[in-house]
Specification:
The protein is of the alpha/beta class and about 150 residues long. The protein is built from five helices and five strands; from the N terminus they run βααβαβαββα. The protein has a five-stranded parallel sheet with strand order 2-1-3-4-5, with helices on both faces. The chain binds 1,3,4-trihydroxy-5-OXO-cyclohexanecarboxylic acid.
Length: about 150
């Protein structure tokens, strides 16, 4: 079972970027941790990051075409990208799972972070557990897809 773990803008700055909000784990540390957690759960995991909306939209199309489930931290795109939302909808409407994750708890932060335009088309959302949000998302995915081949 393939899983794409996709990260949006500024997440390559993890560890350096506002560590009081996002913690001290670096992006490389996140990649290693997510790949390890996914592998232990029996997933074939690929972890990617981009600051480019077109690229993350293309990756969601790729998920549909390769029958891959998705764990996605859309970062700031969460709050305003209808293009990302429409691409995410193709994943979940295509019978695949897409779990939205956030490192911080957006509801405890600025007003503009309280709205996700992605949430309504996601399978579910996990937020506020630091990089552990990715582990919880992968565990949820394991439970949802069972031990089947897809
Ligand atoms: C974030 C929360 C977003 O509001 C913010 O724009 C990010 C990261 C998180 O993981 O907590 O870049 O998605």
């Amino acid at each position: 079972t393939r899983v794409l773990v996709l990260n949006g803008p500024n997440l390559a700055r993890l560890g350096v970027r506002e560590p009081d909000v996002y913690g001290h784990t670096s992006y490389d540390g996140l990649v290693e941790a997510a790949a390890g957690w996914g592998g232990a759960l029996g997933f074939e995991v690929e972890v990617r990051q981009t600051d480019d909306e077109a690229e993350i939209v293309a990756w969601l199309h790729e998920a549909v075409d390769t029958r891959s489930h998705v764990v996605i931290n859309p970062a700031a795109f969460t709050h305003y990208s209808y293009a990302l939302r429409d691409a995410a909808a193709q994943v979940t409407h295509g019978g695949l799972r897409l779990i939205e994750v956030h490192i911080s708890n957006p509801y405890a932060r600025e007003e503009f972070r309280h709205r996700s335009v992605v949430g309504a088309v996601a399978t579910g959302t996990i937020a506020g557990f630091g990089v552990g949000s990715y582990r919880l998302a992968l565990e949820a995915l394991r439970e949802l897809v069972g031990d089947g081949a897809d």
